[in-house]
Specification:
- This protein has 462 residues and is of the alpha/beta class.
- The chain is built from 18 helices and 13 strands.
- Strands 3-10-9-8-7-4-5-6 form an eight-stranded mixed sheet, with helices on both faces. Strands 11-13-12 form a three-stranded antiparallel sheet, with helices on one face. The protein has a two-stranded antiparallel ribbon with strand order 1-2.
- The radius of gyration is 22 Å and the shape is globular.
- It comes from Muribacter muris.
- This is Aspartate aminotransferase.
- In the C-terminal section; belongs to the class-I pyridoxal-phosphate-dependent aminotransferase family.
Length: 462
């Protein structure tokens, strides 16, 4: 068995103190420097461990004050988080670290990225960058527009019109990536200890982000039709949350969409309880049906903050995202952007603009959608052969949300021994036991891995 990392050892040390009531709820724990000196580790190691424990819900960080034991730590998180420390393999922090390392295409079925050979050809990217560099003298010595490169915003508004969404570029803001856009909105609208609703299951990065911002997470069950309306109304009525964060299209991790009837009813609840919705539509270009409704389609710019980006199509290094926001929030959001990001990088935004105008771009999108359909057909046949049910409600997105009926946390640890990076179900919820689920990226799931999965299932399923 591999020796635990120093970060994992520090996490174990702190968790033991919490579980034995040495560190009590709301109690401040030793500072980073103090514990580093006590355990003879670097301050960087202690800081990483503390941030990891925040993402798991054991600690909360209060700016200017330090780290405190989180009193709302739930039993479900304790139960499913424990196995991750066995080898530091299956926890969110470990998985996030591996997102920033080069991954073998056939060894990363847990990745959230498309393989590089699925993305826009490098030749087109080089041409776009070269064109933007030639124009650099026009903008490179100034901040640029705080809302972002206007021609790009206008072109994005045109793309939205093809989806039935009427959008004014004057109420759009660009940001360096969808994750930065989400944080910008949260920092503008919320304060520490506010309540936020997320889908259950939900993107693991989002859960960690909300913990980092010291926000209280409320989970609403999500199925193939959308959120459970009865539970959603209960949460609105009981906790008065500021925002509900969701994917209406190709939800991560389930690839479910939201039915039109649910969209109507959710928008009604937003008005009734004076709440807002953050709609993360990062997977929009991969949706086959251009008539699929989104919350923003029906909202008319009142309650929905709509976010989309380019990283899933152009590649993870392209950190360009768009926010289309209610008019009354423009000044508030721009002020927060100025104080956090100043402006976005116009060189990158001009390059995206050139790529979008290239004649091959729409063909590329169509090809990606067709490849996804073929991948799903192949995956369904392969899963049938090894006795795993293909989720019928799933749309043809990047992910499948599979119920394997066995412990996927332990599976992830075993898979790592063969250099496979998996995304076990417990990462995607802090309130529900999804420990027998697995998020599978259909574009990165190889025949080799499916053979390994079949053998593992045959050995471990009773």
């Amino acid at each position: 068995m591999n020796k635990k990392t120093k970060v994992a050892q520090v996490c174990d040390w702190v968790i033991e103190k919490i579980e034995h009531n040495i560190y009590l709820p709301e109690q401040k724990i030793p500072s980073v420097r103090s514990l580093a000196k006590r355990l003879n580790y670097s301050a960087f190691t202690i800081s990483q461990a503390y941030e990891h424990l925040v993402s798991l819900g054991y600690l909360k960080a209060i700016r200017g004050s330090g780290y405190f034991v989180n009193p709302i730590k739930t039993e479900s998180v304790q139960a499913v988080a424990a196995p991750s420390f066995t080898q530091n393999v299956a926890d969110t922090g470990w998985l996030m670290q591996h997102l920033f390392h080069e991954q073998e295409k056939d060894k990363s079925p847990g990745s959230g990225l498309l393989p590089s050979d699925w993305l826009i050809p490098a030749k087109i990217i080089r041409q776009a960058i070269k064109k933007s560099a030639k124009e650099a003298h026009e903008f490179i010595y100034t901040y640029g527009h705080i809302q972002g490169y206007y021609p790009l915003r206008k072109l994005f508004a045109t793309q939205l019109s093809h989806l039935g969404i009427t959008a004014d570029p004057s109420f759009m803001i660009t940001m360096p990536g969808v994750s930065a856009a989400i944080q910008l909105i949260l920092r503008s609208l919320t304060r520490p200890n506010d309540y936020i609703i997320v889908d259950d299951p939900s993107w693991f990065w989002l859960l960690g982000c909300l913990h980092q911002l010291n926000l209280n997470i409320l989970s609403v069950p999500r199925d193939q039709n959308g959120p459970n309306l009865e539970k959603l109304e209960y949460l609105f009525k009981t906790y008065q949350p500021k925002i509900y964060i969701t994917n209406s299209i190709l939800n991560n991790p389930t690839s479910y969409n939201v039915s039109p009837s649910i969209i109507y009813k959710v928008l009604h609840l937003l008005h009734q309880y004076n709440a807002y919705l953050l709609e993360d539509d990062i997977y929009s270009p991969l949706e086959n049906n251009p008539h699929t409704l989104r919350y923003i389609t029906l909202d008319q710019g009142e309650r929905v903050f709509y976010i989309s980006g380019v990283s899933k199509i152009l590649g993870a290094n392209w950190r360009v995202a768009f926010i289309y926001l209610p008019k009354s929030f423009l000044d508030i959001i721009l002020r927060q952007k100025m104080l956090s990001n100043m402006t976005s990088t116009e060189l990158t935004e001009r390059s995206v603009y050139s790529i979008w105008l290239h004649s091959y771009y729409p063909k590329h999108i169509d090809e990606m959608r067709l490849k996804l359909v073929k991948k799903h057909e192949k995956m369904k046949n392969a899963l049938d052969k090894i006795g795993i049910e293909y989720p019928k409600p799933a749309n043809k997105g990047i992910f499948l949300w599979l119920d394997l009926k066995l412990d996927t946390t332990k599976m992830s640890i075993e898979a790592k021994k063969e250099n496979y990076v998996l995304a076990p179900g417990y990462l995607f919820s802090q309130h529900t036991d999804f420990s027998h689920y697995l998020r599978l990226n259909v574009t990165r799931t190889s025949d080799e891995f499916l053979h390994w999965l079949a053998a593992y299932k045959a050995t471990h399923q009773g």
